[in-house]
């Protein structure tokens, strides 16, 4: 017969065991299911902005125990443009980002929306993140179609493009979003205090653990590159050439024009960095060159008369106003935004314990522009 003392001890032991299991399944889930270290591709600063990433090399290697990287973090944040209806999709993206990267670095998040975020949205997101989070309202004048656009012409062009097999060809809200991402997100008061950013979209996948601080004095980082729909940018390059002719001093020496053009700038090959993934230096967009460039293109009206996306305009801006060695391909970050994936290969795949299919890799697609990027070096 069990004594009272033995019964109490057994009950306590059972309680502790159950508590440990529950605690493990929630708090340490990332340690079990996340992926081990991927060494940094960066070789160090090249001409350096004043903010230093500052994570010492000895902390790049994840030991499976220490979840916090010592050292000075970069002045950086995740920037997320989302609607209340994107809650499930962005929750998935953020959960993966926390498991794969931010569980170690605890960078803050800035969420932006053209309408106020709901209490439910803020509650669920706050519950997911390991760093600080702020929710911002986009100023009306930054989001909606500007006054100089001829709406009658813009509407006719939307209706025409809406009949073509082009995503969002007839959508005005999509055009507002593209223009905002191109020229305004970095002006938001909540973003102003940061130097670097990592853009996160709803419903994306991060396949591999990232155990080094990605912010290291590059101006622009990408994972996937491809050609833009020709019908959406019919007059864009003409505007770019006009701007270059009027402002040759703003174009960076040793730029990446050869990524954009196969004939030294006469025509545009439509290659761009897919901007649903961006890691970048906000001072690139805030600088004199890009600011003048965006204002020049904005008054051409192509965001509304055609369907200029933030991806080609950002790509052209990064290629022209940065040195080519300041643009970085994150070959070791596994990423998917439907329908395309970038999956690390070889040692990076094994080292990262990535869960993507290595055969599902847009890098090897004939339409990938990665080969043009590789030829820059």
TrEMBL record:
Transmembrane segments: none annotated. One of its GO terms (biological process) is protein N-linked glycosylation. This is Alpha 1,2-mannosyltransferase 2.4.1. The gene is KRE2_1. Residues 1-23 form the signal peptide. Keywords: Glycosyltransferase, Signal, Transferase. GO terms for molecular function: alpha-1,2-mannosyltransferase activity. Belongs to the glycosyltransferase 15 family. It comes from Steccherinum ochraceum. The keyword Transferase applies. One of its GO terms (cellular component) is membrane. InterPro entries: Glyco_trans_15, Nucleotide-diphossugar_trans.
């Amino acid at each position: 017969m069990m004594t009272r003392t033995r019964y109490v001890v057994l009950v306590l032991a059972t309680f502790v065991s159950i508590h440990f299991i529950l605690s493990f399944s929630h708090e340490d889930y990332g340690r079990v299911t996340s992926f081990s270290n991927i060494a940094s591709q960066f070789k160090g600063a090249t001409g350096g902005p004043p903010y230093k990433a500052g994570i010492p090399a000895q902390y790049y290697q994840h030991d499976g125990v220490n979840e916090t990287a010592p050292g000075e973090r970069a002045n950086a944040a995740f920037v997320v443009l989302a609607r209340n209806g994107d809650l499930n999709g962005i929750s998935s993206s953020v959960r993966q980002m926390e498991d794969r990267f931010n569980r170690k670095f605890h960078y803050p998040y800035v969420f932006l929306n053209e309408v106020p975020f709901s209490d439910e949205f803020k509650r669920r997101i706050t519950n997911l993140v390991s760093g600080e989070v702020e929710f911002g309202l986009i100023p009306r004048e930054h989001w909606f179609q500007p006054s100089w656009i001829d709406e009658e012409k813009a509407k006719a062009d939307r209706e025409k493009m809406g009949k073509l097999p082009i995503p969002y060809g007839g959508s005005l809200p999509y055009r507002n979003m593209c223009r905002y991402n191109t020229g305004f997100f970095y002006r938001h008061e909540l973003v102003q205090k940061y130097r670097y950013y990592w853009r996160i979209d709803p419903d994306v996948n991060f396949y591999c653990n990232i155990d080094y601080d990605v912010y290291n004095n590059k101006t622009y980082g990408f994972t996937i590159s491809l050609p833009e729909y020709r019908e959406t940018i019919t007059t864009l390059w003409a505007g770019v050439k006009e701007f270059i002719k009027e402002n040759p001093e703003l174009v960076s020496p040793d730029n990446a024009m050869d990524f954009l053009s196969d004939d030294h700038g006469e025509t545009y090959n439509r290659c761009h960095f897919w901007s649903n993934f961006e890691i970048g230096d906000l001072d690139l967009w805030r600088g004199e060159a890009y600011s003048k460039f965006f204002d020049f293109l904005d008054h051409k009206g192509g965001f509304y008369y055609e369907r200029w996306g933030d991806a080609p305009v950002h790509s052209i801006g990064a290629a022209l106003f940065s040195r080519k060695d300041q643009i970085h391909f994150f070959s070791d970050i596994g990423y998917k935004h439907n329908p395309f994936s970038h999956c690390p290969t070889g040692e990076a795949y094994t080292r990262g314990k990535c869960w993507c299919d290595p055969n599902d890799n847009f890098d090897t697609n004939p339409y990938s522009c990665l080969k043009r990027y590789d030829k820059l070096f």
